[in-house]
Amino acid sequence: MNNGTSPILKLVELLEKLDRNSRRSLVKLHSLAQKLQNQQHPVQWATARVATHTRARWIFRHHQMGKGVVAEGPIILRAKGELVIGNRVVFLGYALPSVIIVHPQARIEVGDGTGFNFGVLLEASQQVKIGRNCLIGSHVRLADCGPVKPGPLVIEDNVWIAHGAIIESGVTIGQGAVVGAGSVVTKDVPPHCLALGNPAKIMSISMRTRDQLCFDRAK
Amino acid sequence: MSRSFPALTNRVSNKLTNTCASLHAKYKLRSCASVGSGVRVRGTVIALGDGEIHVGDGVEIDGSMAPIYLHVLRGGAIILGQDVCIRSGASIHALQRVEIGPCTTLGEFSVVRDNHGHSLANRHGDFPPSIPVTLGKACDIGRRAIVLPGASIGDGAQLHPGVVVSRQVPPRVAVVGSPPRIVPLEEAL
Predict the structure, then answer these.
(1) Are the CB atoms for A194 and B161 separated by under 8 Å?
(2) How far is B83 from chain A (nearest CA, A)?
(3) Secondary element (H or E) of residue B77
């Protein structure tokens, strides 16, 4: 553990100042310093942080990108259309690269604070819109160019899509909804609902009850 | 050329890859708590976290097509029994305990995890409680199958491709479809 005046902290502060894309407020800098103090390997952590930011800036250099975007692994980007990425979007990449394909005259929009796990496929032939603070799991497929019902794909705020789910084209997923692991969503999901299975069905049990059931089973 | 020549080279190259795989295993699994004899690793294995990974004798891990991802958090354990085979892209996540019995096969891109990662109501908070997962002897986990917390799979059970399981599965049955249903082994074939 190091105290507040360590050289690493000074270095990070300097890097933050140099970083024109992400001019953070003093509060954020303070929280960063606190995080760094809690880390076991502060040097690796700081270098990884800088590296991931730089990688994101390099990958999305031709596109509109917010502050503090992080790419922890490689991303395969084939964008001939419009790609807009909000603030603090995270792309994890431990195992497999994520793939982003934007066809000509198509548009992908990703909201602030959304996190993507590894191996995600994002493909747009018309429009894909992802809201704020969404959690997209590994191996999720979000494409609006399916053969069945072509149309724009809309994912509203605070949605959690779990591992391996496939969202078909022309589907809207409401605010705060959850899509279970491995499910295939063919119809619209209303807000604050849980969709599971293939084809996905809306579950009648509320999410709080399910959490409670999980707690009970853990005991 | 005589017909025996390619066979001979095949045999030599097989021998070489086997020795390379075991050497590779020693290097790749150096962070594991215990590694048995005759373990073979191909391709990439990502072992992350501070928990314990116990690898039994004769385990085969094939990460040549896509990396294999073993994630154990502190205080957790992954226990791989004898002769377990893990195919490309499979991943195991353990917060508490994931136990895989001898001679079990994990198919391509399958997932075994004992924690949901996020609770349904409060998604940006802490981990929800985890429920340990056990797979029995000689199970067959299909491609893209997902074993969720609370699942315990009996000896010789087969999970067909794409199945999602979070309950107890009795021994020597097949699980098919989504939502999953249990059928006798003969019917599934």
Answers:
(1) no
(2) 24
(3) strand B77-80
Q: Identify the residue among B164, B165, B167, B176 best suited for mutation to test binding to A, counting A beta carbons within 10 A and taking the highest.
A: B164
Residues of chain B neighbouring A183 (CB-CB closer than 8 A): 164, 178
* Phi, psi for B177 (deg, rounded to 5): 80, 175
Residue in A94, A198, A219 nearest the CB of B46: A94
Tell whether A95 lies on the interface with B, counting CB pairs under 8 A.
Answer: yes
With helix as H, strand as E and coil as C, how does chain A read? CCCCCCHHHHHHHHHHHHCCCCCCCHHHHHHHHHHHHHCCCHHHHHHHHHHHHHHHHHHCCCCEECCCCEECCCEEEEECCEEEECCCCEECCCCCCEEEEECCCCEEEECCCCEECCCCEEEECCEEEECCCCEECCCCEEECCCCCCCCCEEECCCCEECCCCEECCCCEECCCCEECCCCEECCCECCCCEEECCCCEECCCCHHHHHHHHHHHHC
Please tell me the pTM assigned to this model: 0.82
- Pick the more confident residue, B45 or A9: B45
Where chain A has pLDDT below 50, the residues are 1-3, 20-21, 23-24
Identify the contact set of chain B against chain A, taking CB-CB distances under 8 A. 46, 48, 66-67, 69, 89, 91, 109, 111, 116, 118-121, 123-124, 128-131, 144, 146, 148-150, 162, 164, 178-179
Coil, strand or helix at B105: strand
Match 């609770």 to its residue by tokens: B119
Q: Touching check for A204 and chain B: CB below 8 Å?
A: no
Please answer yes or no on whether B91 and A164 come within 8 Å at the CB atom: no
Within 8 A by CB and 6+ apart from A105, the residues are A81
- The pLDDT tens digits for B114-155 are 988 888 887 877 788 889 999 999 999 999 999 999 899 999
